[in-house]
Amino acid sequence: MLFGREHVERYQETDGAEGHDWQGTTVLLLTTVGRKSGQKRTSPLIYRKKDGDTYTVIASKGGADEPPLWYTNLQANPEVEVQVWGEKFAARARTATPEEKPALWEAMAETWPAYNDYQKKTEREIPVVVLERV
């Protein structure tokens, strides 16, 4: 089973032939710029296509009390790179509004039901992130 750095490398090397489909769901690669280091960081994330060129991901970190680093990076710089299969594109990331979050959360939980368990593990409100192609 692919995970972490190996997942990113196999996904990139195979244009997603290895790594896009993962444990019954689908994964994209999100590249952010480190808010302190300035270095590019790539994370494999479960996603769902919202509509058109818009995708959603969840900043869960498995229900940890602190958000994942990729989320704090995109808060500092919302200009990101996304790879879905072999397609790579620039996108702008934003946290879903309180009005749109419930429907997006429900759709993501259909994709990966553990998100509901992750939210129960922490008092932190886990954000839904919207990735809009630019």
TrEMBL record:
Gene3D superfamilies: Electron Transport, Fmn-binding Protein, Chain A. SUPFAM superfamilies: FMN-binding split barrel (SSF50475). Pfam families: F420H2_quin_red. It catalyses: oxidized coenzyme F420-(gamma-L-Glu)(n) + a quinol + H(+) = reduced coenzyme F420-(gamma-L-Glu)(n) + a quinone. InterPro entries: F420H2_quin_Rdtase, Split_barrel_FMN-bd. It comes from the Bacteria. Belongs to the F420H(2)-dependent quinone reductase family. This is Nitroreductase family deazaflavin-dependent oxidoreductase. It comes from Actinoallomurus oryzae. The lineage of its organism: Bacteria, Bacillati, Actinomycetota, Actinomycetes, Streptosporangiales.
